[in-house]
Amino acid sequence: MLRFILRRMVFSVGVLLVVSAVIFLLTHLVPGSPAIIVLGADASSEQVREFERRYGLDRPLAVQYLAWLRDIVLHGDFGRSYISGQPISGEVARTFPVTLEIVILAFLFCVSVSLPLGIVSALYQGRLVDHVARIFAVIGVSVPGFWLGLMLIVYGAVHLRLFPPGGFIPWSAGLGPHLQSVVLPALALGVYYTAIISRMTRSSMIEVAAQDYIRTARAMGLSRRRVLQYALKNALIPVVSVSAMSVGYMFGWAIIIEQVFNIAGLSRALLSAIFQRDYYTVQAVVLVITTVFITANVAADVVYRLLDPKIRGVAA
Amino acid sequence: MSIDPLLEIRDLRIAFPQPPGMADAVRGVSLDVGPGEAVGVVGESGSGKTLTALAVMRLIDPPGRIVGGAVRFRGRDILALSDAECRRMRGSEVSMIFQDPLTSLNPAFTIGQQLTDVIMTHQHVSRRAARARAADVLSIVGIPAPARRLASYPHEFSGGMRQRVLIGMAVACRPRLLIADEPTTALDVTIQAQVIALIRRLRAELGLSVLFITHNLDLVAEFCDRVAVMYAGAIMEEGPTEALFSAARHPYTQALLRCVPRLGDTGAALETIDGAPPPLGTAIAGCAFASRCPIVMERCRTEVPPLRPVAGQRVACWAA
Amino acid sequence: MSAVAGAPAPTVVAGRPGIAARLASLLRQVLASRLGLVGALIVLAVVLAAWLAPVISPYDPVAVDLELKLQPPSLAHLMGTDQAGRDILSRALWGARVSLLVGVIAVAIGLVGGIVLGTLAGFYAGTLLEQAIMRTVDALFSIPLLVWAIAVVGIVGVGPITLGPLSIPNEGKVILLVGFLYVPAIARVTYSVVLAESRADYVRARRVQGANDLEIMATEILRNCLSPLIVQATLFIAIGIIVEASLSFVGLGVQPPKPSWGSMLADARGYVFSGEWWLPVFPGLFISFTVIGFNLLGDALRDVLDPRKREAGLVV
């Protein structure tokens, strides 16, 4: 087991290195020096050279890359944005927790709705509740999250006035208003994965229920509750794993959904950086999100192996 | 029939939907099992023997249904039991073990947990007492180091050992009747012998009755007091093992017995029965075996022969 | 959970029916299910609408007429007009073209790449090639491709790509990136099928008959991959439509003034509070219905073709 985790981590670090190199190359091979972006097209070559020296852009690419990596790994320093002049790490530190919170809320919503829904659909397969759940699932998987967000704003904020129309209200302004500002975005983000995971739970339960060991449990007279537990323990293994993975994917979709709600999370950092051509910030945010994503995937794998006794005991 | 049979099955009919209507899978099976008796049920795949057993356990799931007949266990009408009563009965009065030991134990729970669950469901004992009893059960069925093995998961056991665990689970609460559905089919021949020996020993020690379902005539010959031969959902012949094997009266039984090669058969071609059994649920008029019977008569094709006593056996054949 | 042995086996068909007959039978089975029928009808309607958009659009989708701006739905403009006076119905019909184009071509790219990689890896299992391919696939699965698509388009810019006389608009980049997104998922599905099939006896028989690797791969094995891949492709078209809409929503997809459902929703954002509900509602409904159609069709296809449900897992 330990060997597996180690192997996975080594592989992940390898992927991160490759990925960091790719994004670095991408941002540095784009035509048009950042100097021109900041100083304007009619800047003198003197000013350009000065600018490049200040930001270390006159060094060979490989050196720049390694220095960048070293600063990240050793100091957690993503460098400075040449647009704003501010340290990028600060921007990341400010925006990351916002996105993280919304993703976590979306995840909690997802798990607390999709698991019971999937289990009930499986237990009452073919009945009304199953059909209704299926319809909700198809809709949930088909309606784009950002449109759902828009519609939620129209109804929740404009019509019902229950929620603010956008913007992230920090904790410091009060728990109530804060929660109000994150409920709709979390909902818009979580619906898609709720649909997917509820269907998955359902089919996993149905498959497990048909297994021989459930037949044995019933033949031995175990109570309905106990038989359900017997089934769940097996059925939920893949579901838990996929749920962990979905956290990573949610970070990606949060980029889009935050825009709908005007929330100053990672999407603000990324998209405004993109449109300001602040490529170093783009680089940093992409790397951060990729790291989170890889972590979520590794966690999902580890959890899967921990839960399945057949794999747990086997040396990786 | 023995006096005061433990299990009485009378004219059991099981059907399942097959558009446009229902299809019969078990057509009027009647069978008794006496206390301490071992009754074998032999037949090919699709003969309805497993379904009959599942009916006794009330484990026939929709869309299949018991559509006729009666099943009585110790005088009680099984078919009238509520769900809760059925659960109380299963594992404590009647137990069943199945064919695939490799898949019949829950891979996510230790065998200690699974055994303890069965014991605690039917007996009001503390978890600790149940665990101790579980260890006892393991040693009874011949698992070495039983106390330590309680913490093992099913995948850490071989197929034969898993079947022993399952047998242990089945007899842990001292049922009166053990239904064994092809318990050795998935096992090696040597392990087969061990499992049969185990069942035989438990039968003697616990006074168990056994309903032994198999397609293997040899096992029946060595283990069962009486045998019923099923074909296409109906019993063709039934009687004491010795008598049936030496003087079978039904053409199907006779053909079956001829098919088994014996030591001493020299070089002759293996016997087979031409044709194939009708697929489960086919509507059949008359005797089910008529299409393959070497001595078929006109009457056989239109009238179902009843299971009648003939010289100490029961036979369903117009020619007997 | 049926304990009954099951209905009698279907009669065996001698010989292999032709492609046309198989397709017809497939179609019949899919249309037999209610939801499959609905999905197929929706897909047909959307495809026709997109194809016939130039003919059936009541107005020119890019014709600006500020006199008519922000008109509510009326007989003249069934879905109202947007902030530049353009007819929303016409824009939505033309938007269908882009969405379908992106969805289908991206899937095609994903299929080609994924099938090639998966077949090679599965066929040459146990070799360095397999290791290399599957490791790369694993690495690709570890990356949040949506975020990278955003970053790449953002960095490279949203202008058209000029290849000599050809000028490929920004959608081309989106198509490539989304197609790339699909490759690992399809590769995995193909790999698992090919891995199983390449060990089958009929493959050995063909080899004995003298067929070389390429022939075997192309004929026997691919024939078995078709079923799960058709299902996956249909579902991926649905995903592609949402991804394109999301990218266009944040300005990184189809560039204005070209109509796209996503960019129409971006325009609509500013009017959420002023009551012009037709701006966000209609484009969103178009996206939702189209995606629902493809999802229903994909589900129905899966029920018919791939009861073993060989899934691609979370992709986005």
Question: Which terms summarize this structure?
Answer:
heterotrimer; A: 316 residues; mainly alpha; 0% strand; B: 320 residues; alpha/beta; Rossmann fold; 2 domains; 8-stranded mixed sheet; 4-stranded antiparallel sheet; 32% helix
Structure report:
The complex is a heterotrimer of chains A (316), B (320) and C (316). Chain A is mostly helical and 316 residues long. Chain A has helices spanning 2-28, 34-39, 45-54, 61-75, 88-123, 128-142, 145-159, 175-209, 212-219, 224-261, 266-275, 279-307, 309-312. In chain A, helix 5 (88-123) packs across helix 11, helix 7 (145-159) packs across helix 8 and helix 8 (175-209) packs across helix 10 (224-261). Chain A starts with a helix and ends with a helix. Chain B is an alpha/beta fold. Chain B has two domains: 7-93 and 175-315, P-loop containing nucleotide triphosphate hydrolases (Rossmann fold), CATH 3.40.50; 105-174, no CATH class. Chain B has helices spanning 49-56, 83-89, 111-122, 127-140, 146-149, 159-171, 189-206, 217-223, 241-246, 251-259, 298-302; strands at 7-18, 21-33, 38-42, 65-73, 76-77, 94-97, 177-181, 209-214, 226-231, 234-240, 308-310, 313-315. Chain B has an eight-stranded mixed β-sheet with strand order 6-7-8-3-9-10-12-11, sandwiched between helices. In chain B, a hairpin with a 2-residue loop joins strand 11 (308-310) and strand 12. The radius of gyration of chain B is 20 Å and the shape is globular. Chain B starts with 6 loop residues before the first strand and ends in a 5-residue tail after the last strand. Chain C is mostly helical and 316 residues long. Chain C has a single domain, classed as MetI-like (MetI-like fold, Orthogonal Bundle). Chain C is built from eleven helices and two strands; from the N terminus they run H-H-H-H-H-H-E-E-H-H-H-H-H. Chain C has helices spanning 19-32, 34-51, 53-56, 88-123, 128-141, 145-156, 170-197, 201-208, 213-249, 261-269, 278-305, and strands at residues 161-163, 166-168. Chain C has a two-stranded antiparallel sheet with strand order 1-2. In chain C, a hairpin with a 2-residue loop joins strand 1 and strand 2. The longest helix of chain C is centred in the last third of the chain and has 37 residues, at 213-249. The radius of gyration of chain C is 23 Å and the shape is globular. Chains in contact: A-B, A-C, B-C. At the A-C interface, helix 1, helix 6, helix 7, helix 8 and helix 10 of A face helix 5, helix 6, helix 9, helix 10 and helix 11 of C.
